[in-house]
Amino acid sequence: MKKTKFKLLTLFFLIAFSINSWAQKTQVSGKVVDDQNMPLPGANVIESGTKNGVTTDFDGKFKLDVSKPNAVLSVSYVGFADQSIKLSGSKTNLTVKLVSGANALEQVVVVGYGKSSRKNLTSAVTSVKAEALNRGAISDVGQLLQGKSSGLNISASGDPNRKASVVLRGASTLNSSQGPFYVVDGVPGVDISLVSPDDIATIDVLKDAAATAIYGNRAANGVIMVTTKKGSKEKAQISYSSYVGFEKVSNQLDMMNASQLRAFVTKNNLAFTPENDKGADTNWQKEILRSGALSTSHNLSISGGGEHGNYMASLTTLNREGVILTSDFSRVIAHLAIEQYAFNDNVKFGLNVSNSNTNAQNVAQRNTVLLQAVNHLPVSPVKNADGTYFENFISTGYFNPLALINHGDDDTKTSNLVGNFTTEIKLPFGLKYNLNLAYQKSTTLHGEFYDSYYQKYNSANFYNNPDPPAVHSLINFGTNGSALRNTYTNTNNIIESFLTWDKTFGNHKINAVLGYSWQEDVLGDGFQATTTNFPVDNVSYNNLALSNYSSVSGYRVDFGSSTAYQKTRLVSDFFRLNYNYNDKYLLQGSIRRDGGSVFGVNNRWGYFPSIGGAWRVDKEGFMQNQGVFEDLKLRASYGVTGNSSGFNAYTAQFISGSLGTFYNNGQQIGAYGPNQAANPDLQWEKTSTANIGLDFTVLKGKLSGSVDLYDKRTTGMITSYSVNPILVPIGSIVANGGSMSNKGIEVSLNATPVQTKNFTWSTGMNASHNKNVITKLTNPFFIGGDSIRRVQPEGGGQTGSTLQILKEGKPLGQFFTLEYAGKNANGISQYVAKDGSLTTTPAIGTDYHYAGSAQPKLLLGWSNDFKYKNFDLNIFIRGVFGNKIFNATRADLFRPATAMTTNILVDVENESPSDLNSFKYSSRFIEDGSYIRLDNATLGYNFPQIHKYIKSLRIYSTVNNLFVITKYSGIDPEVEQGGTAPGVDSNNFYPKTRTVLFGLKASF
């Protein structure tokens, strides 16, 4: 009975407390608009000095209960000057007009474990609003950011199933993909495929170590913070967006047609073999392409909320056909975000759940198909008279690309799930406690099937055509069809807990964060199997049980990598302190302590400190009477980050395994022994970055920008070093040793040159320069050479020829090859020998010379927005300058002596078949990779309110890749810039497309 009375008293107290709190509140409502009276959806309206706030709906409207009649509202929106409004009692229909472009330093940016106003940043951070992201049929976040942030080098092909390569401020290591670390809504390491482009609110690119060191060992390549949209405390709102796009190949190689090739062969006294010449005139590049590819997207979202919570749910479908036959991409993303306040809004619970399901249908033997499509003779037909595919296995490496496509399957299904539960508690004395619990699960199901037709290729020396720097290998397709199927699951469990202290003492402001992070990852939990000898072809890889591999002599089932399954753990402590004196002098310091299981037992802990300071010069007394600068801030920072990617859980451990066979007493016996040496001293790669920056706003807010100078140095690069086999049986060990340097400058400018009642022109430009150098490739304990030749495309007659070199004092992507010196008196291509003389018989490696770098000298992005009444036009131009491309594709098609067996380029017309050197990999095929591309142009119209149930309606049309200006002779100059073999075009470029897209956006 006593317990019941106690519960009733408690309930009565809570009700009375709530009623009392409600009675003290004052309701305010209104609308936030820009200087053209257009509504600003997603603007922040906060009661100053509290966490009480809302975001505006699609019409810019808001409704907020404030604690007192004379409260002050703080209204902010990215790209607009903040505004404070002092209330005088209840207000309705309040209109708040924000001035655009005026005060870039007032923007709110997302940083690790918190937010900050740009005016108080001491580090280099670029923020990109959702409306400023690239437009078009884009499913990859990397492409959304292409050209939008200084320092980001992003390259992408036309393949809908391949992510863009993203490199921030130059390559930092030889061991990873160079890609940045993604944090989505506070969850670290999220697979970016979980984010729908339509759900993104802002993206913040953290560049220097002062900004990224709070993420420690995962931040060496930069950190990209993605914030998704949230609901507002208003009535429910329904939004719908959709587009349909039509894609076509923007460019192809200029190969000879049948009449051109026949004339060349006749002129040079050559002849086609009867097996190849069937009197056809086939454009093989065209044959493997769709006449047009279709892309569609639909996004439906519902959002809203009440006084103590909000919600947002969305469903997105993306479908994109590839321009090469059978390639296709489809994805469905479901997203739910809920925030609920309790205990007089002192506690906030949050739940974010996202799930994406992706089906990627790849081109079977994609790179080999691309190679065969340009190699195939136009006088050969696609099919014989009886309807079967034309093949000529007498010619080495000559396979019908259409047959390869239509007799093979290569599919991957991926399911990604992330759930994040957050709790935020306001405590006394300016303290706030956050607890974040996250769970991520990614499951892939991959299948490949090569039907009985592929059995014909087993006797024809079928080599694959991998992306550089991998070397090709011989493939056997079994008997009566072969299949591969695997399924692997990765799971991540994350617990992050941190305490934040915000306190003001007069002119002194302190913000401190102290936290703990725990993460356990299980990778590669699954299995793989291969089999062969199927009774029929139409089951593909879907029923391996139908096969009868045991009857095929010598066949072995491939169960996948022995190191596929891994379990890793990361435990971290972190602390950050921000000090602000009178909004004039700013200081930030942070440190993170990471412990990782992937490293040697003697070095599993690493420390990653940073410090930064800023001086808001415009706040000084001597600046008050000047009329030039509205904002002027000088900042400097230094910090250390680490890299834990590019190596697995067993890199530091001793591993034994199969070593082939040996002959013993008349039998071949399986050998077993060490495959990898242990290294208990293996530790983190560390990257330190020093940064000096200047932020400014001039001309009464019409022009703002920033300039950054940085020096980024990586030490202790992890790679494999040669060792005396007496000391280490396998002759090599993975250890720390190498180092790399990146130095650069970044400039960003934003301006509003014209602003009238009906017309506005705003423009933004960013430019960046980076110089990359490998400063060390040796380890003091494992001395070896200071250079490594690599990248072997292995074109016909060029086995062993390499294109690049890793060398101390040279950049990653340094070309090292023969130096072409024209033709001698006999019309034979000649080259510069090691001693400077000319030779027609150059030696591989010995007579090589340095021949330029794949690293660009300048990256440029230029965006222009024009608004006239209800019309808007965006034009975005992107450029890359000063980089070289090794056009190995051109070299392999520059073989006049083999014109009767493989096709050649049109501009080989004047070459002589007697010149057997014409195609050698050399500086002759190194070209300027600079280009300017009109990346996208969008024209839209915003309808005024046309119906009481339709709040807004916008229609638009976008053209992607309208044109490119370049001297490069290949398909497209945007070749791979990521990885450790950048700038190599090697018969593997999936053609880029030109897209015309029509779309609409509506809210109800």
- How would you classify the helix and strand content by structural class? mainly beta
Kindly state the mean pLDDT as a whole number? 89
Write the CATH fold name of one domain. Immunoglobulin-like
Principal-axis shape equals globular
Would you identify the CATH H-level superfamily of one domain? Carboxypeptidase-like, regulatory domain
| Contiguous helical run count | 8
Flag low-confidence runs. Answer: 1-23
The largest β sheet comes out as: 22 strands, antiparallel, barrel
CATH architectural group of one domain: Sandwich
Report the top-level CATH class of one domain. Answer: Mainly Beta
Binned strand content:
over 45%
Family: Belongs to the TonB-dependent receptor family.
Main location: membrane
Subcellular location: Cell outer membrane
Protein name: TonB-dependent receptor
